[in-house]
Amino acid sequence: MHSSIRSWFMMAVPVLLVGSLAVLAWIVRPHSELPAGREEVVFWHFWGGTDRAVVEGIVERFNESQEQYFVRAVAMPGNNLDMKMFLAVTGGDPPDLINQDDPIVADWAHRDALMPLDEIAPADEIEQLESWLFPAARQLGSYRGRLYGLCNGLDIRALYYNRTVIGQRTGRRAPLQLESIEQLDKLAAACVLREGDKLTSLGYLPDPRRLWAWGVVFGGRFINSEGEVTPDDPAIVRALEWMTRYRDKWGADTLAAFRQGDQSLPGKTFPLLAGRYAIVMDGQWRVRDIPADRSGEFGVWQLPAPAGRERGADGWVNGNLFLVPRGCRSPRGAWEFMKFWSGFGGHEAEAARTCSQGGWIPPSQQVVDQPRFQQYLRQNPLFARFVELAAGEQVPTPVIPAARMYYREVNRAAERALYTDNPGNAASLLEEAAEKVRRQMERVGSREETR
Amino acid sequence: MPDPGQPRSRRKLPAGWLFISPWLVGLLLLFAYPFFASLYWSFCRYDLLSSPEWIGTEHYRRIATEIWNGDGFGNALWNTLYYAAFSVPLSIITAVLLAVMLSWRIRGQAIFRTLFFLPSIIPLVASSILWLWLLDPQSGLVNHLLGWLGLPPQLWFQGVQQAGHPGTFLEFGSKDALVLMSVWGVGNFMLIYLAALGDIPPQLYEAAALDGAGRCRRFWHVTLPMLSPLILFNLVLGLIKSFQAFTQVYLVSEGTGEPVGSTLLLSLHLFLAAFQDLEMGYTSAMAWLLFIVLFITTALLFRSSRHWVHYRTSLGG
């Protein structure tokens, strides 16, 4: 009797377990919102907060405009979207489209994890797209002559300055445009504020991560025509030497302590608003951190070149790119959505609306020229300065495999130069970084030979 | 129909296998396979997207060079050893002292115990952000406290402590800040010691007191030896934990190991090599070296334990 009850019990437990799991799975099943006859396009992006609402708005408008495709946007705020995408490609279930702002195009294209756009769209359309884009937007998405990513927004850097602070501390009006690096140095020195021995506000302090911008403005290039990395380009070395003069003046520890938290947290912690600096280099996204009632206090300068030398470039640029992972289900759907968002193929007015809502710099002059965007620029003169600069010569991070390592090593060399007291000379630090990246590129290259 | 001739235990064998099968499958697929596969990959060039290519001991030679030059793996190893060498002993000493103090029968004992345990249940993400604010060189509370004590302000996470430049006396930098953060979370260790303290037979203290031992000598000759098995346990656990520290360094350095690679602990270096540089072979080689280092260190600790760990024998009666 007991044995029979036990047998029943032993059978009932697994049945109950499986049954409960089935019920649970039914309860939490994803509710498909895919309208009948439409093909789903899964889109991963990193936007959160107010930007996410803008993204959802674009997706909604696209879905309303379509009869063939239906985009499902998946927000993944944080900085590991590339890792998730990489694992999804490896696992054979990638999304149809992702948005990325890290310099990963070459790394992934080199490993065949991305689809070149000419595999998705006809050659003549890609040709038109290439001439439609700003040069910088085109370069950001190109690897070995093929377009792998479609830029949907550029990130441009310039110098923000506080007119009131400069006026008070120098006794003069802030200039409308900086003529030279030397003028920047003079202003920076004149705007220092102390309480006893303690520095409370600086005029300007170079950020090591901005060697990428100063290097090209000084006339250097981080890659040569043979595709070799050249952070030890004499002009880049000169730029780093100029940056280290600030260390020599204030001391490495003072600089390191002052730097804490700068330019990393959004909103009110923008160090320019807090009065920690009179001049700060940053991107166009900071414009919306400036409250409307204080916008008159601030201005934007283009990065100045050293006196007596020709400007090497207008600045350094990166941006957001749409990428289509190899192995996705709906590359055509992804292409249609990319065009709708970026404005290419007759969607310029739509893109102008999107860029005005998000405060993003369009990837093409044709979107900039749209009446809606022009109106936005008139209302936001600080932002308009960045858009003007976008059309100039902006140099992107080299699109090479190992680009992220390159970015890391150059930043580390610049940090060492600025934040340690006896780091060795700028040239040797940058040569060391170059050597590491060259070795890494050789490793990646030797892989290619055996492929 | 079960064969009545079979022993009962044999008849139950299939059911037994069936019941442990979820665990067994998990162990084989999620642990054993990656474990041994990574050993093979450590001798290959492998980026997950294409098939592994055998390159022999190239990764291990590269690691040896990096250790010699003090960059890459060498820098990360140095950082991790520095972190482990200070955080593990400091955490144990702090936990033992706190446990002893919290075992004193004073008013509000339960509140104090709760207060000191509380930090260990705060998520590491939240506490890391909190420490970033506390250790701000300009406006952080810790530097203010140091100022009140007449001590110089510190750079903490902005202090560049590289290999060969660990900072001088009374000069604390990024790695020291990490050590400080690790001491903040000693609540779990403390709880274990607290439980063990209540288990020490009072006769031992009475006998020591009769022999004229004061508080300090009773602590040194009775409390510590009786806690020594747990100290060994926490030492091994703490060591493994410090070699695997990731979340806090990822958060405080925004995933870069900066400034100047001074917070680049081994686990973060592995992560960057794997998922940014896509070097799974090199990462596997580093992971295996890390495993071997930990294995040898733990074995040495266990071997040394016969000289300093006192296991309790029955007191009789």
Shape category of chain A: globular
Give the radius of gyration of chain A: 26 Å
Largest pleated sheet of chain B: 2 strands, antiparallel
Low-confidence blocks of residues of chain A: 263-267
Helix residue percentage of chain B: 55-70%
Percent helix among the residues of chain A?
Answer: 40-55%
| Helix-strand string of chain B | HHEEHHHHHHHHHHHH
Number of strands of chain B: 2
Task: Tally the helices of chain A.
Answer: 18
Task: Describe the 3D structure.
The complex is a heterodimer of chains A (451) and B (317). The radius of gyration of chain A is 26 Å and the shape is globular. Chain A is an alpha/beta fold and 451 residues long. In chain A, helix 13 runs parallel beside helix 15. Chain A has helices at residues 2-27, 49-65, 81-90, 105-110, 123-132, 135-141, 163-170, 181-190, 211-217, 234-250, 252-259, 331-342, 348-358, 365-368, 371-379, 381-390, 403-419, 426-450, and strands spanning 39-45, 69-75, 97-100, 142-143, 146-147, 149-162, 193-195, 198-201, 279-283, 298-301, 315-323, 394-396. In chain A, strands 1, 2, 3, 6, 9, 10, 11 and 12 form an 8-stranded mixed β-sheet that branches. Chain A has a two-stranded antiparallel sheet with strand order 4-5. In chain A, strands 7-8 form a two-stranded antiparallel sheet. Chain B is an all-alpha fold and 317 residues long. In chain B, 66% of the residues lie in helices and 1% in strands. Chain B has a two-stranded antiparallel ribbon. The model of chain B has no long low-confidence stretch (mean pLDDT 89). The chains are: A alpha/beta (451), B mainly alpha (317). The A-B interface holds A 10, 79-80, 82-83, 86, 89-90, 107, 111-113, 252-253, 256-261, 264, 402, 404-405, 408, 411-412, 415-416, 419-420, 436, 440, 443, 446-447, 450-451 and B 15, 45, 47-50, 53, 71-72, 132, 136-138, 153, 155, 157-160, 162, 165, 254-256, 258-261, 272, 275-279.
